[in-house]
TrEMBL record:
Family, per entry: Belongs to the citrate synthase family.
Organismal lineage: Eukaryota, Fungi, Dikarya, Ascomycota, Saccharomycotina
Keyword field contains Nucleus: no
Keywords: Transferase
Record-given protein name: Citrate synthase
Species this protein is from: Kazachstania africana (strain ATCC 22294 / BCRC 22015 / CBS 2517 / CECT 1963 / NBRC 1671 / NRRL Y-8276)
Length: 466
């Protein structure tokens, strides 16, 4: 090669290398969530493979008979990448506490609260996105909001007194018709690509949930009319507007609400059910609907409705007399009638739920003198002492559901049977990232072992004789 040719070809190579490098860095700053996650998959698969190979036979836990009969409490037997719950400290999302994510996750202009789209990115990738990336994600999600006619018609035909959670679960189930995963699976797609279709379904689902939730809200309690998503709005602003709430503070509340209600590690009923059903390769629609059915139980997500109804009965009974003595009596009456104090206790936590504290912080900032906030605050002083004296619950402190209802009441969203629907929308942000991860790493179908009491007795005898 002549000198001139060599110089020219080096120059061309350098220029094209420079161009591809600059493209790569531009690509990086504009990198979509799907690109980012796709890039991480090979190393995640390798990490799990090596870890299992090296430590696969390590005994990580022992299980007692009490645990087998006691709702499997505390048994370490699931993998959940997005969050870990510590009994004393509370939830950490990919290592970050709630106060940390409130500070670190991107915020849209004029807002002090993080957006749940940012948390979704963090839960899926372990990285905090830029504001630009979050905005692109909000836009992408909002562009997927259209509902098929049969879902709209079904919702319009449901009886108004059917619980909003049943309506939500039915609508999500009926959206199975839209599942890209189910279609691809039927066409025999390679299992390596399952995650990609699960990702698409997950974003589609997130996009459709605000319309579904608002349709349910407006069908049951208002005029049945719902607008459309605005691709320039963030998720919480869209959801609030669709429901008919345009107050900026309410939108702020929704940003906080959706973010902190999203994920609470994998063992809770809604997260575990979504994961379990998803492990059979049911589509994200059917998997999430199953999780929502679990969330609808009064000991889980529906506790937010129970709290409000219980508080209103209290208010009626004490007739404005919010002294500690009258509240204490009401608490004992509830306990003595064989019911639980809704919004108190937790299967894992042994301290006040940080999600309760975040909502308390919001109330203190926005409406410290609100009557129901004062009532909830007095309860916080009285109920733990009563529950400790009662001596049954392992955790006498308030959980997330203890506070959420009165925040919504303040802004005029008074229909408490709708509250768990908002929890359900939020939960989608927490459970869908894990479903995508499960499909990317090829998580197996879940199948723990059960025994009959007779077999357990035999097992205990055998162990005793050893
Ligand atoms: N009021 C009265 N008794 C309570 C209680 C409460 N808030 N919380 C627990 N207990 C009782 C239990 O019913 C149980 O009684 P039994 O021995 O008679 O069965 C005993 O205390 C021990 O229960 P635990 O080990 O402390 O709690 P669990 O892990 O079994 O249950 C939970 C956890 C959340 C279901 C329970 O604390 C409860 O029922 N709380 C009220 C409902 C509620 O707020 N649920 C929302 C939780 C958060 C969420 O998932 O959204």
């Amino acid at each position: 090669m002549s000198q001139t040719l060599l110089v020219r070809s080096t120059k061309i190579r350098t220029t094209s290398l420079y161009r591809s490098l600059s493209l790569a860095s531009r690509h990086y700053s504009n990198q979509t969530l799907k690109d980012k996650f796709s890039e991480q998959i090979p190393s995640k698969i390798e990490e799990i493979k090596t870890f299992k190979k090296e430590y696969g036979k390590t005994v990580i836990d022992k299980v007692t008979l009490e645990q087998a009969y006691g709702g499997m409490r505390g048994i370490k037997s699931m993998v959940w990448e997005g969050s870990v719950l510590d009994p004393e400290e509370g939830i950490r999302f990919r290592g970050y506490t709630i106060p940390e994510i409130r500070k670190l996750l991107p915020k849209v202009e004029g807002s002090a609260e993080p957006v749940p789209e940012g948390l979704f990115w963090l839960l899926l990738t372990g990285e905090i996105p830029s504001l630009e990336q979050v905005k692109a994600l909000s836009n992408d999600i909002a562009s997927r909001s259209e509902l098929p006619d049969h879902v709209v018609q079904m919702l319009d035909n449901l009886p108004r007194d059917l619980h909003p959670m049943a309506q939500l679960s039915m609508a999500v189930t009926a959206l199975e018709s839209e599942s890209k995963f189910a279609k691809a699976y039927a066409q025999g797609v390679n299992k390596k690509d399952y995650w990609s279709y699960t990702f698409e379904d997950s974003l589609d689902l997130l996009g459709k949930l605000p319309i579904i939730a608002s349709k349910i809200y407006r069908n049951v309690f208002k005029d049945g009319r719902v607008g459309t998503m605005d691709t320039n709005f963030d998720y919480s602003k869209n959801l609030s507007h669709l429901m008919g709430y345009t107050n900026n503070d309410f939108i702020e509340l929704m940003r906080l609400y959706l973010t902190i209600h999203s994920d609470h590690e994998g063992g809770n009923v809604s997260a575990h059910t979504t994961h379990l059903v998803g492990s059979s390769l049911a589509s994200p629609y059917l998997s999430l609907a199953a999780g929502l059915n679990g969330l609808a139980g009064p000991l889980h997500g529906r506790a937010n409705q129970e709290v409000l109804e219980w508080l209103f009965k209290l208010r009626e009974e004490v007739n404005g007399d919010y002294t500690k003595e009258t509240i204490e009596k009401y608490l004992w009456d509830t306990l003595n009638s064989g019911r639980v104090i809704p919004g108190y206790g937790h299967a894992v936590l042994r301290k006040t739920d940080p999600r309760y504290m975040a909502q308390r912080d919001f109330a203190q900032k926005h409406f410290p003198d609100y009557e129901l906030f004062k009532l909830v605050s007095t309860l916080y002083e009285v109920a733990p002492k009563v529950l400790m004296k009662h001596g049954k619950t392992k955790n006498p402190w308030p959980n997330v559901d203890s506070h959420s209802g009165i925040l919504l009441q303040y802004y005029g969203l008074t229909e408490s049977s709708f509250y768990t629907v908002l929890f359900g929308v939020a939960r989608a942000f927490g459970v869908l990232p894990q479903l995508i991860i499960d499909r990317a790493v090829g998580a197996p179908i879940e199948r723990p072992k059960s025994l009959s009491t007779e077999k357990y007795k035999a097992l205990v005898r055998t162990i005793g004789n050893q």
